[in-house]
């Protein structure tokens, strides 16, 4: 890194900008897929938020320093233990996510209003966004903090910032962000890559959101 101080400032600016955007979407009551599907054009606005996140978390840093590509392409630190532990965590995450979405959809009926949009576009952007998101949080931010503060302090600070960025989500999501954030940091550190953390986060998100989207779509078709 030729200019680490510029990198520090860029991290602060990007985090602050996205936190502000999250607050705006909280005011609009479109801060997740479930709420977006309750509002006309909600999915379109959520797509816009994902595009902004991709530009901030991914494109900005990859254009700034191409060395960050190593966090997406380096696999030589993937030991058998790290891979097996990640696989078990992915399976556990899928089970938890499926259980959670069943509880969520149980509160809805065919009388509820739902505004659906292009699901293919949404989930395509969602996958790219989560990759950019993990590149920033468990890649650029984590390893920058490790260089400055060491591993333990870096994980604590990273997890704290991860919880802050979830400040406008539900209480259960905020609490869940603590252990989930620590696990993602450890996986990224020992694999020296964000790919396993991305797959784990993707498993949690897509199982929940695809199930939710399909459920609302069935309600709409039956109405």
CA-atom Rg in angstroms? 18 Å
Q: Which stretches are low in confidence, meaning pLDDT under 50 for 5 or more residues running?
A: none
Number of helices: 9
Tell me what portion of residues adopts beta-strand conformation: under 5%
Molecular shape? globular
Number of domains: 1
- Structural category is mainly alpha
Average pLDDT number:
92
Helix content: over 70%
Give the tally of β-strands: 0
Terminal-residue CA separation: 57 Å
Summarize the topology.
Elements: H1 4-28, H2 33-36, H3 42-64, H4 70-73, H5 80-105, H6 119-149, H7 151-165, H8 171-191, H9 195-222
What does this structure look like?
There is one protein chain. The protein is an all-alpha fold and 223 residues long. It has one domain (4-222). The chain has helices spanning 4-28, 33-36, 42-64, 70-73, 80-105, 119-149, 151-165, 171-191, 195-222. α1 runs antiparallel to α3, α6 (119-149) packs across α8 and α8 packs antiparallel against α9 (195-222). The protein is globular. The protein starts with a helix and ends with a helix.
């Amino acid at each position: 890194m030729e200019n680490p101080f510029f990198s520090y400032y860029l991290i602060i600016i990007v985090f602050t900008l996205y936190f502000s955007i999250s607050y705006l979407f909280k005011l609009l009551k479109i801060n997740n897929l479930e709420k977006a599907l309750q509002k006309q054009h909600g999915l379109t606005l959520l797509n816009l938020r994902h595009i902004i996140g991709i530009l901030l978390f991914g494109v900005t840093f990859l254009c700034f320093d191409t060395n960050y590509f190593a966090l997406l392409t380096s696999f030589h630190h993937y030991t058998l233990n790290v891979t097996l532990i990640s696989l078990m965590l992915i399976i556990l995450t899928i089970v938890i996510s499926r259980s959670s979405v069943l509880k969520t959809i149980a509160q809805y009926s065919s009388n509820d209003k739902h505004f659906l949009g292009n699901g293919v576009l949404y989930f395509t952007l969602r996958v790219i966004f989560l990759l950019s998101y993990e590149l920033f949080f468990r890649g650029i931010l984590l390893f920058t903090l490790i260089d400055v503060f060491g591993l333990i302090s870096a994980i604590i600070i990273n997890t704290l910032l991860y919880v802050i960025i979830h400040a406008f989500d539900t209480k259960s999501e905020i609490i869940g962000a603590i252990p989930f954030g620590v696990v993602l940091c450890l996986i990224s550190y020992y694999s020296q890559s964000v790919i396993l953390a991305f797959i784990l986060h993707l498993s949690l998100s897509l199982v929940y959101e695809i199930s939710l989207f399909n459920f609302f779509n069935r309600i709409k078709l039956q109405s």
